[in-house]
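User: I'm putting together a teaching handout on how sequence relates to shape, and I'd like one worked example. Could you take Trimeric intracellular cation channel family protein from Actinomycetospora chlora, show the sequence you're using, and then write out its predicted structure as tokens right after it?

Assistant: Happy to. First the sequence, then the structure tokens directly below it.
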Amino acid sequence: MSTTAVTALVLDLAGTFAFALNGALTAVRVARLDIVGVVTLGMITALGGGILRDVLLGALPPATFSDWRYLVVAAVGGLVAFGLSRQLERLATPITVFDALGLGLFAVTGASRALALGAGAGQAVLLGALTAVGGGTLRDVLVRRVPTVLSSELYAIPALLGAGVVVVADRLGAGALVPSLVGAALCIAVRLVGVRLRLEAPHPPGRPDADPE
């Protein structure tokens, strides 16, 4: 396996673990599910975006079902979150951080995989963002929340930025590792700063302010 392939796999599995933790903690904190529900929601959050990406690219079966490591890492992440639920269920910060980590890592690995399978620059950016937001969207739908990507929070924008870094670097002939790390770091930073400062994507002109929570 080439260095580029190893880098992509490591980042992809790290994103899978982070999103599994995020989905499972959401299941504990928001939906109050049992162990089956917690692990299931964690796995759906971790694997949903990658499955959608591979289906759209015609890369069948999706990597999730052709490489056992994805399923194992996602299941372990869900179980870890379940085991630590007593300590973490009242804390919002771990969910936000794991969500940002998964978002950044999946944005760059999704874009890299799209490029490797022959997608154009624009398509690769979009598929990178889809990989990053797809699992979280499925998570929110299953716990009956408006998906974060459809609200005004900075969610899709950081993913697009992270994927864009990878695509631009590829077009410039740069290596894979450094652009992937830079893209992931940029996505994570923008997401966390947005949450911290309550930054929002632009609203339609004339739209009344939302009611306070």
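A couple of points you could highlight for students: The mean pLDDT is 87. The chain has nine helices and no strands.
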